[in-house]
Amino acid sequence: MATENQHTEQLKKYGVVVLGGGESGVGAAILAHTKGLDVFLSDAGQLAPLYQRELEDHGIAFEQGGHSEQIILSATEIVKSPGIPEKNELVKKIRGRNIPVISEIELAYRYKGDSKIIGITGTNGKSTTTSLIYHICKQAGKDAALVGNIGISIARQVALQPKDIYVTEISSFQLDDIQDFRPDIAILLNITEDHLDRYEYNIQNYIESKFKIVQNQTSDDYFIYNIDDSLITGQLKNISISSNLLPFSMKQELSKGAYIKNNEMLIKVQEEQVSMNIYDFVALKGKHNQYNTMAAGITASVLDIRKEKIRSAVQTFESLAHRMEFVATIRGVDFINDSKGTNLNSVWFALESMEKPTVLIMGGVDKGNDYSLIADLVAEKVKAIVCIGLDNQKIADAFKDVVSPIVQTASMKDAVDEAYHLAEKGDCVLLSPGCSSFDLFKNYMDRGDQFKENVKNL
């Protein structure tokens, strides 16, 4: 039964109310419905036509364009979409009534049965690592699904096509509302300042949010983490973790876990040791991808996947769209799309992997960036900066003494044209914005697609 805020059952009580009608919200509503729960979905905006049709096909009651507070505040339980912040007025009222609030991953966990969950979180590298683990699982013949923040919600997968293994990309926002959620294998790639507006501009709040991925783990589970990350190791000193610790490092040799020495990656979990030459990683260039590959390799070893399968899968993995994605070479100039690089840590890693003089396209909605973090790499690698966005004065001010020229543009076409003009044969044009995309684009995917389109039109 579809409604538009004025349905006749205003006072009907629902067991579960889902707030937010994106992929995670609709997935949660479908799962709740298939499990016989009385569910209602409410979205302040307009639902995508595809989601609206799905809800109607499943006979799930919903509203869009506003919230019916009477219905929501009489719910037994709320499933809150990760995009809705705590400072939202309706969320404050829900909290004031002490109505239980859970995330979609918590709901999915309740109904996963005996299936395993591999949960991947961190500030950067989640999508690549999640996709690589899924690729290894598929190559090894495992019955796995690629779910979570990367695409299909885990709740939808559990409801409509259950699998033995859910390889799940998880954001801190999704972890904020878990209760019993417990991944069999938890992976924490790194922690750098990001999304601090959601965490009262306190990095410790963000760290604790990321560490919720291990809070319910037992001695049967595994925690794979970056031991080179000082924020991770600092937090580990303050908490106790019940699961089996498997660190990875580029800076030290480890008896268990993974490390890199003399360009060889060594993974030791079970009796069988896996070794790979980092130069065999065709689509996984740069130190950040070596970290991602260690995390994925450890995971595969925990799953008892043979070393030959792990090696083969790493070598045949193709890079993700919008994450250091090669687009084209035009008159000797390479074009790389890293539109998913929405924070400065991502830009740092992108620049670190550059081997040619680089024209950097960056800018957008600044999230309180401290550009001094990448100043040394910009000085070393970047010959020109093309700013894209409505207000990039902060970028111009930060790098005016580091690189010249710095050009301002207000459309992707202009940015690509300027970058191409500034580049010479043997150079690289890199789109790695370091900012959100919402001033000129729908999202980072739209931004990356426009970049690729304009490159192809050169």
From TrEMBL:
Belongs to the MurCDEF family. One of its GO terms (cellular component) is cytoplasm. This is UDP-N-acetylmuramoylalanine--D-glutamate ligase. It comes from the Bacteria. HAMAP family: MurD (MF_00639). GO terms for biological process: cell division; cell wall organization; peptidoglycan biosynthetic process; regulation of cell shape. Residues 120-299 form the Mur ligase central domain. Keywords: ATP-binding, Cell cycle, Cell division, Cell shape, Cell wall biogenesis/degradation, Cytoplasm, Ligase, Nucleotide-binding, Peptidoglycan synthesis. Residues 322-433 form the Mur ligase C-terminal domain. InterPro entries: Mur-like_cat_sf, Mur_ligase_C, Mur_ligase_C_dom_sf, Mur_ligase_cen, MurD. Pathway: Cell wall biogenesis; peptidoglycan biosynthesis. Cell wall formation. Catalyzes the addition of glutamate to the nucleotide precursor UDP-N-acetylmuramoyl-L-alanine (UMA). ATP binds at residues 122-128. One of its GO terms (molecular function) is ATP binding. Its main location: cytoplasm. It catalyses: UDP-N-acetyl-alpha-D-muramoyl-L-alanine + D-glutamate + ATP = UDP-N-acetyl-alpha-D-muramoyl-L-alanyl-D-glutamate + ADP + phosphate + H(+). It holds the Pfam family Mur_ligase_M. It is found in: Cytoplasm. Its EC number is 6.3.2.9. The keyword Nucleus does not apply.
